[in-house]
Amino acid sequence: MSNNSETKDDILFSDQHILDLSNPDDQLPWVALQLFSMNQRTIADELKKKNFEIFVPLEWVVSEKTPGHRTRELRPVVRNLLFLKAGVTDDVLRKEVLQLNYPVRLLRKSKDTNDLAKIPASQMYEFQVMCNPELMGKKIISTDEAKLKKGQPVMVTHGPLKGLRGRLVRASKKYYLLKEIPGVSVMLNVSRWCCEPIEEAK
User: Fold this and answer.
1) Of 67, 75, 76, 102, which is most buried, counting CB atoms within 10 Å of its CB?
2) DSSP letters spanning 120-139
């Protein structure tokens, strides 16, 4: 016996939506917020109360809390990150984050600069699509792991992922489309015959 069970994570992240790039409000860049505590849900709730739009990659997890009673729940894939739409200036964003009563850090372009690592809306859209919890054959990996993987920049030309861009990499004798953004990367199983080489974005 199995059924869907609504959890606090389901409720908190239920209003996440895929960006509509034709909407000017959805053309704003995003930033990644690194968390140094196990309070992702509470931090996300506080940011939403400040009118920030957030995104957290989710996945379906099946658990058996009592014998014969299995539940299917949406849970965050990573617990140490939140993504925020940068609808305010960097100074205001930093101020709002500092007011949180938890250890957090906005990711920067590099250790040598205070400039925030902005994620263009187009890249965030592709990341959201690839993180769809209904899609199978997906792996979430760290930024360091992604940097070690060699692959050709490609665009998917056929199938449900048509139009998405990333690097075509190989792992465990399978091909994956690898999408990298600050803080985390996602790999999605894809046929190499559906991909067309493109020039690497600068």
Assistant:
1) 76
2) -HHHHHHHHHHT-TT--SEE
3-state secondary structure of 190: coil
pLDDT in tens, 69-85: 788 888 899 999 999 99
Give the pLDDT of residue 43: 95
Where would I find the H helices in the chain? Answer: 8-12, 40-49, 90-98, 121-130, 143-148
Strands 165-171 and 152-156: antiparallel
**15 phi/psi in degrees, rounded to 5:** -95, 10
User: Which tokens in the block code for residue 56?
Assistant: 């957290």
- Supply 45's token pair: 């709730």
Predicted local distance difference test score (pLDDT) of residue 16: 82
The residue behind tokens 């968390």 is 35
pTM: 0.86
pLDDT number for residue 5: 46
Contact (CB, 8 A) for 27 and 118 = no
3-state per-residue secondary structure call for 155-169: EECCCCCCCCEEEEE
Q: Which residues in the chain land under pLDDT 70?
A: 1-14, 201-202
d(CA 98, CA 168): 38
| Residue 154 token pair | 């490609």
